[in-house]
Structures are given as structure tokens and as C-alpha cells.
Inverse folding.
């Protein structure tokens, strides 16, 4: 099977360096939208409480809050590069990110419990609402992303300043 895939060299044809974050953001948005679309579909098809308990929507709401929390923190804030002031600085950004990931994992685990404990173990005739709750949270969870630095930023970092009176720039340090 790997011999078949060796002939496919898509990464050489397309420059993903500058477009990587844009494509990842679009993919995350599509996954988030798909998750909510699935749960809205289940809520419309099964509107009664006997078929689909509406309290199960809390799991998706918590996953959405986690999605917003995690995507609100940049990598620079976590590393301490671009965020030094505020309530707790770098430590506060890391705590915020940790809480966001705890909420995301918790909602994913809770959605599995809803699927198996509320629908599969009780041998209900209609299982789709439980599957919808799980897939909603799975799609939101897989839509979580942290933006990576661009290829240029990762390979070469230079700090420079202008020399007074000459207009020339001098490199202070280079990585």
C-alpha cells in the first residue's frame, strides 16, 4: 500500500507554507459547523423529550465554549512571546488553555456516556440522537486547533535596528 502512495507528491506541487493557517482555520470552521448541523438535524427529527432529551445539548454548548476558549489563545501568548501584561500573563494564558482543553475532553467523554449510557445500554429503538450528540462533540473537538508559526518564522528569526544617521539596518541577533 505504501508503494502506491509514494508516487503521490502533492506537497511539492503546492506551497503550503503561508496558506497552512488559513486552510487549517477553514477546516476547523467546517468541522465546527458540521457538528452543530448534525445536532440540529437530530433535534428537528426527534423533537420530543422521550426520543431526545434536550438536556443533552449542554454537552455541545460546553464543547463550543471550550472551542472558543482554546482558539482565543495564540501560541505566542502560551510561549510568553507576545503577552507579558494582564491578569496573570503567560501563566494565565496557560491556565486558560488548560481549562479549555479540560472542558473539551470532558464534553467528548460526556457525549460518549450519553451515547452508550442513554441509548445503547438501554436498548432504545432510536439511537440516532445519541450518535448525533457524540458526533457533534467529536467534530467540535477535532476542530480545535492552535495556529502554528509560518514556515518563514520557524526557520529564520532576526532582530535588527536602524543605525542612527545612516539609515542602514544592523542585525542584533539571528536564530
Amino acid at each position: 500500500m505504501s508503494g502506491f502512495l509514494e508516487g503521490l507528491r502533492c506537497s511539492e506541487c503546492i506551497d503550503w507554507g503561508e496558506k497552512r493557517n488559513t486552510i487549517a482555520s477553514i477546516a476547523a470552521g467546517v468541522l465546527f459547523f458540521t457538528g452543530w448541523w448534525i445536532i440540529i438535524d437530530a433535534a428537528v427529527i426527534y423533537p420530543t423529550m422521550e426520543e431526545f432529551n434536550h438536556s443533552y445539548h449542554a454537552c455541545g454548548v460546553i464543547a463550543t465554549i471550550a472551542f472558543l476558549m482554546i482558539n482565543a489563545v495564540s501560541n505566542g501568548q502560551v510561549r510568553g512571546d507576545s503577552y507579558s501584561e494582564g491578569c496573570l500573563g503567560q501563566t494565565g494564558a496557560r491556565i486558560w488553555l488548560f481549562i479549555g482543553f479540560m472542558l473539551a475532553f470532558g464534553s467528548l467523554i460526556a457525549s460518549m456516556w450519553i451515547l452508550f449510557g442513554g441509548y445503547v445500554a438501554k436498548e432504545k429503538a432510536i439511537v440516532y440522537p445519541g450518535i448525533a450528540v457524540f458526533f457533534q462533540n467529536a467534530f467540535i473537538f477535532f476542530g480545535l486547533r492552535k495556529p502554528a508559526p509560518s514556515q518563514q518564522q520557524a526557520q529564520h528569526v532576526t532582530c535588527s535596528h536602524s543605525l542612527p544617521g545612516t539609515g542602514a539596518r544592523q542585525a542584533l541577533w539571528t536564530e
Remarks:
- Residues 89-120 form the longest helix (32 residues).
- The radius of gyration is 23 Å.
- Confidence is low (pLDDT under 50) at residues 150-159.
- The chain has one domain: 20-145.
